[in-house]
Amino acid sequence: MLRRGFPMHRLALAAALAFASTAAVAGTVTVITSFPKELTATYKAAFERANPDIKVEILNKNTVAGIAFVRETAAGQRPDVFWASAPDAFEVLKRDNLLQPAPDVDNKAIPAKIGNYPINDPKGFYKGQALAGYGIMYNTRYLKANKLVAPKEWDDLLKREWYGHVAMTSPSRSGTMHLTVETILQGEGWDAGWSKILQMAGNSAQVTERSFGVPDGINNGQFGAGPVIDFFGLAGKYSGFPVDFVYPAMTSIVPANIALIAGGKNTPEAKKFVQFTLSQQGQELLLDPKISRLPVLAYASFGNKIPAGYPDPQTIVKRAKVNFNADLSEDRYALVHSLFDQTITFRLKELQAATRAIHEAEAKLAGRPNPQAAELLKQARSAAFTPIVSSSLAGQAEFLKLFASNKKEVAVSKQITGLEESWNRKARENYAKAVELAQQAAALAK
Amino acid sequence: MILDADAAPRLGARERLRRHLGASWRSFLVLGAISAFLLALLLIPVGTVFVTAFRDGDGSFTLGHFGTFFSTGLMRESFGNSLYVATASVFFASLIAVPLAYITVRFQFRGALLIQTLGILPLIMPPFVGAVAMQLIFGRSGAVNLLLDEHLGWSLPIMQGLTGVIFVQTLHYFPFILMNLIVALRAIDGAMEEAALNLGARGWRLFARVVFPLAMPGYLAGAALVFVKVFDDLGTPLVLGQTNMLAPQAYLRITQVGLEDPLGYVISVIMIAFSILALWLSVRVMKGKDYSTLQKGGAGIAKRRLKPWESALAYGVILLVLLVVLSPHLGLLLLSFARMWSFSVLPEAWTLANYATVFQDSSGMIRNTLLYCGLAALIDVVIGTTIAYLILRTRIPGRQWLDFVASAAIAVPGIVLAIGYLRTFQTLELWGVPVTQTWILIMLAYSVRRLPYALRSCMAALQQINVSLEEAAEMLGASKWRSVRRIVIPLMAGGILAGFVSSFITAAVELSATILLVVKESQAPMSYGIYLYMQSVSGRGPGAALGVLLVLTVAVGTYLSHLLVERANKTLEHAR
Q1: CA spacing 20 to 30 A to A254: which of A3, A96, B421, B452?
Q2: ipTM, interface predicted TM-score of the complex
Q3: Domains (ranges, CATH) in chain A?
């Protein structure tokens, strides 16, 4: 604040400083991450204490900006380490040859798999550094004010009384939401799974653009509950917000990753940093209540350092009903995103209207059986909550291949956009039809 | 006294031509310099990214992606929504800004300057925390709705749907109209009004037929800015969950991890084309009309004294308006002192800890914000004034395009510009340091992204100055440069300041390009600091505290620049 002077002056100074620093400190590890400050600051401090001659520079960027930054920087100038939650980000970097494997960096005590999911990239390009599970976060004060019972399972969020109180994000915006959606689809099967997701979305007040938008909105009481990654829920609770978090039976546990960037400035020192995050000491840092993440290292090696009541990933995985299939998820990645956005994100208003009409009809019919009305209601539910793409079509390799192909080709882009267009229109029609059917059913109840 | 261009002493056609040619080599030089700036910092970097929109899979040229755009129903729907929101926002922003400007300029009014300054504050809506504060006040479980629900049993869904977008955009951007209109109203020749009064025009008729039309360049500059900015704005629709508008559709496609969708760039190109069209239309409206007056600075329009009940009414209206438009900032202030605020009308536990946290690591950030935004705004007004001069005072071919190209920057998503910079300047070095490792790119990105704001204000200011004044100076022997320096710039000062302030303020809250271009935490400005805090649950308090500091810093910066211009004006008057 005290420094004065003209920009040119400062520029020369900055240049001189930068010059000096490239010469003197060969040991600066630059880490690109989307993780919160509490986590990165803790790791930076602990690592620099253990390695006084190496400095850590944290560059916080959201996942998209992080990838773009690495891609657009010349080799030799690039940052050294990429550290983030979304597994798809690492796949993209790997595909573009921006990662380098580090077979010599490892902690042998880390198990190979969590449930069915490999902790490290099978080709060795990136490593699991912490575990994350998915579940429901809710605001206790909001629930009390709206007379809602705390949810335990996904099904609780589909109930009539939850209309307008849920929030979720889109799988195309959040790698973690993608895994939640896949977990439900794999656990329930394609049709039943989509039906659940559509009902939950119909009860939602908003599909947020950022994945952090859901926990943020629940923290300030804007939403009642929603699917989030565990540490968001736990950290909110720790910070004193009236929120809580629960793992439903249908959950999966997957790793958050760390990787060496190809063409980084200081690869040898960077390896030391990655090694540190995987070491016993580095893993213990995750248990800090401000961080609240699950270590990849098995709990046996921690002795009595695990706080009481801390979730154990191995137990959660054991009681979880889903055996997560990463290949299946990969194969239909683009299809799931596109289907979600076209029929949910971009048609939320219409889906909400359909869900509301169905809830209202159900409320009216409750307690007075009317076979004709029940049949109409069934049709309404089927119109609103059946996926536009059938399970048989979603299983066809050729169909999936179209979605994975290069959209830069006009012909491909036209074909995909044409399909999306028809889904979007169909969804709109279905939701309108559902409203009509539900209203007919409600009219019969009089 | 009432002279327009027709009655002004006219130079013969031949004389004009001679002068024009005589000055032209210099004009061409200036034109070249500005074109080079726009080419290097806007057209080329953005072109390297947007080229995807025109490329087929094998790299050959195609317009096929545009065909896809026009045949998609969702795109047509989005276009309609964006158009509707932008038009409605201009309407409501005018409803707020026009009375506020008129009352404070036209009547003797205590605290007019304070009100005008407070009226600019809504532009400083720090990223993320601004939205959170809005939600805590007006949202579904915000203070207003909790109170309504408790006492009346109903709530106001004002933050939902397209209505919510219009509401927030109106509150956020009406200062563009306010600022430009105030400058324009002040610049009106009092004699015009006297003449109208002598001829019997009073009250509404006087306002609608004489005063407002004379301020038209300022109003249009502001309204065009609001329209284009809202049409191209991304943040508000996304925060409110409205995806079916053009800017969010482009953004969602451009930033999808792993899938490159040319349609995203196609939408951006179409948005740019439409924004230019809108600006062109606003220029058309002004074409063939001359709103310049000869006498400036001396006798402005008369300040009327208000009767007590009128005065009470005016204060009441103004206070109500200010209360609504400043409530997000009030929310921000409360949030910064809150230990925890969730589902309640007010926070229930207070603390100073947030400020303690922020003061520890933000002094560097404050300095960076002032440095980058100050430099960027300075570049903007220099270029803005120059372009305005080239367009309105010379006949160089292609001068109109400078305006359109510079204004196109408003529709370029920040992330696209930033990617373009990294790509274009990857290998450029300054004093042995790669330019991508310095803060220069951040500053330049600010200046390019905010240039349209300064440009509109400068154009409006120059439109109100009659060319005869310069011609008179030149006939008395002043050189071109001297007449610009001694006549044009001093008379434009108000408009230039408005331009500087809007560039400076909006640059201070820029985030999308900043995130990508920051390479060291020591180079980070405050907007990035807020982003950093808002990434974590426990960072909301410190984020809000930093947001308050940002608002204060920018407000003080704005006030200081006001003082500076005033002092310069005074010195000038002495010199006269």
Answers
A1: A96
A2: 0.82
A3: 23-132+255-319 (3.40.190.10), 332-446 (no CATH)
